[in-house]
From TrEMBL, chains A, B:
This is HTH lysR-type domain-containing protein. Keywords: DNA-binding, Transcription, Transcription regulation. Residues 1-58 form the HTH lysR-type domain. The lineage of its organism: Bacteria, Bacillati, Bacillota, Clostridia, Peptostreptococcales. It comes from Geosporobacter ferrireducens. Belongs to the LysR transcriptional regulatory family. Signal peptide: none annotated. InterPro entries: LysR_HTH_N, LysR_subst-bd, WH-like_DNA-bd_sf, WH_DNA-bd_sf.
DNA sequence: AGGTCTTACGACTATCGTAATGATG
DNA sequence: CATCATTACGATAGTCGTAAGACCT
C-alpha cells in the first residue's frame, strides 16, 4: 500500500484545498488537516503556505511533492507487477531433472507450459537424482522430475507413473532358453536367479538406476559382481549386447533404444519389486508457488501420455 | 520517515535471517517475523522462501526488494534535502520592492544575503507599493521592502527608518524668500501653506509617494491642483526645477538626485507629518520561513547604514 | 540443547470520525 | 452566515514486546 502521507500531501497540493482533497480521499476533513500538520511537524518544515486563496506549496513543499510523485510511481509499478505475478503474467520457475528425463520427459511438459504461460521464465537444472534432491532442499530448484525411491524426508512427491525394470540378457547367453511367458504378462519373463554369480554392468552409485538395480538384486539375494561402471544405461545395454554381462533397464528406456543392436529384455518376477516410479518432487518446507502448482498440473496431464508408446 | 515495510524486507533479505535482521533493526524477533508475514499476506505473494539455510527471496521478493531499494533511496534524498532546507543550504525567497527601492536599498541587502546564504535562490519582484502588498497577501512574495503607510491589515511590518518629505520649490519662485531656519533643523524650512492654490506635480495614485503627498497636503488642508502626473519622483523634481509646480520629495531621493539641475528643497513643519517609514513587510497569516527571518535580520543590519550619506 | 521461525496475548500508540471552535470573506 | 481550517475527544485498529509453541540440527 502506498504510504498515506504521500497521497495526502500530493492531493492537497493538487486541489490547493483541504476540504476538496479530503472529499476526494474519502477521509474526514479534520483528519486530513491534522495529518498534514503532523507531517509538517515531523519534517520540521512547512509544506504549504496557508494563504487566503488556499494552500500553496512552499519551497520545501514543492520538493516534497516532486519526490512524493516519484515514489508513488514506483509503488504503482510495484503493485502492477505483483498483480502480474499473481496472474502468472510473470514469474520464474526452476525445474530440476536427470539427464535422461531432461531429454525424454521434459520437452513435452515445457512445450505445454510455455504455451500456457509464456511470460514465466523457465530454467532447467540437470544433474544426477541425488544432486537434484539437494537443490530442491536448498530451494534452488522449485520442482523436480525424478524417479523414486526418494529417501530424503525433506521432499514430498506425487507419483506420475510406475515402470518396470527389465533384465538385459546377451542374445547368445544360454539362459535365453529358459525364458517363459505368464498370463497377462506383456512379454517374456526370465528368472533373475539365473544371473547369480554372473557379472553385471552397473551405473554409478549416485544414479537412481544403480540404486534401484542394487535394491532389486538385494531382494533377489544376488551378490553382485560389478564388471563395468558407466553413466549411461544405453551404454550398459550395448555392453550387454556384446556379452560382457547383465544389466537392468527401465522399460521406457528399452523401447526408446529401439531394437537395433540391442540385447534381449525380459520381465522379472514381481516379488523382487523390479520397478521405480516417475515422480514430481517438491520441498516439504517451501510452499508451492502458483507457477509450481501449474507446472504440477501440466506435468500430470502430459507425462502419462509419454508412456503410451506407439505399437511397433 | 521511511516506511518500515521497506526497511524490514530489505534488511531481512540482506541477512537472510529474521533474528539477525531484528537485532539490527532494534525490534523483537517475533515482531519482525509477524511483520514480514503480514506484508506477504497483504501483497498476496510470498516474498521469501523459508529454506533450511535461511530466508531467500522468491521471484516476487527479488522484485520487491529491488523497488524497495529505489524507494528508500528517494526517501533518503528527501531527508537530506530537508536537512539542507532547515540548515539554509537551500531554499528560495521572493523579495518584493518598489522600483526605486529596488535600485537604492536592495542591492546592498542582496549582496549581504547571498554572501551569507549562497545556496538560497533569490527572486526579485518589482512593482508599485500596492501591487507588492497584493503579492505578499497572495503568498507570491515572501518579504517586501516598502514604505509606510501600509493600510492593509493582512500585512505586518517592522520599521527600519523614518524619513522626511521635503518640499521642492522652483529656484525662481518668490516663496524661496520666506525660507527660515529652526533650532536643530537639518536645513531650511518653508511654510507649505504658501503653496496653497498653486499647481502640484504628483505621481500616480497607486504610488506610495503620491499617497504620502496626498496625506501631507490633507493635513495642511491644502486642496491640491494636480498639474502633471508622472511615475518618477525624479521627473517630478525636474519639472519643479522648470517652474511647472511644486512637489514633495523624500529626503534620500533629494540627496540621491544630487544638486545638478535640482529645485530647492525645504523641510516643512512636523505638524503636517511630512514623512514615511521604510519597512520590511510580511503576510500576517503566512508563517515566516527561516530564509525570511534571516533576510529580516540582514535587512535590519544593512538598511540604516544606507541613510548615513557621506557629507558633501 | 541451542538455534530458528511462528503463534498467543496484553499493552500501547496512532489515526480516525464526530463535534466544537476559530478565522475569513 | 457560509466556507474553510484547526482543536478536542472518544473509539478503534495496528503494532509492539514478552512468553510460549513448533521445528530442525
Amino acid at each position: 500500500m502506498i504510504p498515506k502521507e504521500l497521497i495526502y500531501v500530493t492531493t492537497v497540493a493538487q486541489y490547493g484545498n483541504i476540504s476538496k482533497a479530503a472529499e476526494r480521499l474519502f477521509v474526514a476533513q479534520p483528519s486530513l488537516s491534522r495529518c498534514i500538520l503532523r507531517i509538517e511537524r515531523d519534517l520540521g518544515a512547512e509544506l504549504f503556505k496557508r494563504t487566503s486563496e488556499g494552500l500553496k506549496p512552499t519551497f520545501a513543499g514543492e520538493y516534497y511533492i516532486e519526490n512524493a510523485n516519484k515514489i508513488i510511481r514506483l509503488y504503482k509499478e510495484l503493485e502492477i507487477q505483483f498483480s502480474n505475478i499473481s496472474n502468472m503474467h510473470m514469474g520464474r520457475l526452476a525445474v530440476g531433472t536427470t539427464t535422461h528425463l531432461g531429454s525424454f520427459a521434459l520437452p513435452k511438459i515445457l512445450a505445454n507450459f510455455t504455451t500456457r504461460f509464456p511470460k514465466i521464465e523457465l530454467s532447467i537444472v540437470e544433474g544426477v537424482s541425488t544432486g537434484i534432491e539437494e537443490e530442491i532442499l536448498k530451494g534452488r530448484v522449485d520442482v523436480g522430475i525424478l524417479h523414486s525411491p526418494i529417501n530424503n524426508h525433506g521432499i514430498k512427491y506425487t507419483v506420475i507413473h510406475e515402470e518396470k525394470f527389465l533384465l538385459a540378457v546377451p542374445p547368445d547367453d544360454p539362459i535365453n532358453e529358459q525364458a517363459y511367458f505368464k498370463d497377462g504378462g506383456e512379454g517374456p519373463y526370465i528368472d533373475i536367479q539365473l544371473t547369480a554369480d554372473r557379472p553385471y554392468i552397473l551405473t554409478h552409485t549416485s544414479q537412481r538406476t544403480r540404486q534401484v538395480t542394487t535394491k532389486i538384486l538385494e531382494n533377489a539375494k544376488i551378490d553382485v559382481k560389478p564388471r563395468y561402471l558407466t553413466k549411461s544405461i544405453q551404454t550398459a545395454s550395448r555392453l550387454v549386447r556384446d556379452n560382457l554381462g547383465f544389466t537392468l533397464v527401465p522399460l521406457s528406456y528399452c523401447k526408446l533404444f529401439g531394437s537395433a543392436y540391442s540385447p534381449n529384455y525380459y520381465f522379472i518376477e514381481e516379488q523382487y519389486q523390479p520397478s521405480w516410479e516417475l515422480v514430481i518432487a517438491y520441498s516439504k518446507d517451501i510452499p508451492l508457488s502458483k507457477a509450481s502448482k501449474e507446472f504440477n498440473k501440466i506435468a500430470l496431464e502430459t507425462l502419462p501420455q509419454l508412456y503410451d508408446f506407439p505399437n511397433d
